[in-house]
TrEMBL record:
Signal peptide: none
Domain VOC: 16-140
Pfam families: Glyoxalase_6
Alphabetical list of InterPro entries matching this protein: Glyas_Bleomycin-R_OHBP_Dase, Glyoxalase_6, VOC_core
Organism: Agromyces marinus
Family matches, as SUPFAM superfamilies: Glyoxalase/Bleomycin resistance protein/Dihydroxybiphenyl dioxygenase
Name this protein carries in UniProt: VOC domain-containing protein
């Protein structure tokens, strides 16, 4: 802990997991996209009455990034050609932004911004995925 702030991997927080819950109108397409194309393995699944289905996919480590409006505008200038961030945007760290972005687009995602290097030394791209999710695909360069 530094200056009252827990550092990465310190495990001192009260929250044990961050889970993003998304309603997907075309459930099967969204499941195929995120599980099979993005590569998030199925961790748990549950079925209920009236065709209720849920699949919990493993996304590795989760963080919550809070940004004020000025930072979001700055990110939009850096990461896009005039695009705007959704109020909630999902960012996925990968090993090869360009290759993963191409795979996602080939699988039906809509390209919003091609891969580009940011001032904070990452390679970022944006796509619109099934279920309407705006994804930033990023690769740390350092």
């Amino acid at each position: 802990m530094t200056d009252g702030v827990a550092t990465e991997g310190s495990g001192t927080g009260r929250v044990r997991q961050l889970r993003l819950v998304v309603e997907a109108e075309d459930f099967d397409a969204a499941l195929r996209f995120f599980r099979d194309v993005v590569g998030m393995p199925e961790q748990e699944s549950y079925s209920g009455d009236d065709g209720a289905e849920v699949r919990i996919l493993d996304a590795g480590r989760a963080t919550l990034e809070l940004s004020n409006p000025a930072q979001v505008r700055f990110i939009d200038r850096v990461e896009t050609d005039g695009g705007r961030s959704d109020r909630i945007r999902v960012a996925l760290e990968v090993d090869d932004t360009a290759a993963v972005t191409d795979e996602l687009v080939d699988a039906g995602a809509e390209l919003e911004a091609s891969a580009r290097e940011t001032p904070w030394r990452s390679l970022n791209a944006r796509v619109r995925a099934p279920a309407g999710l705006q994804l930033t695909i990023f690769q740390e360069l350092d």
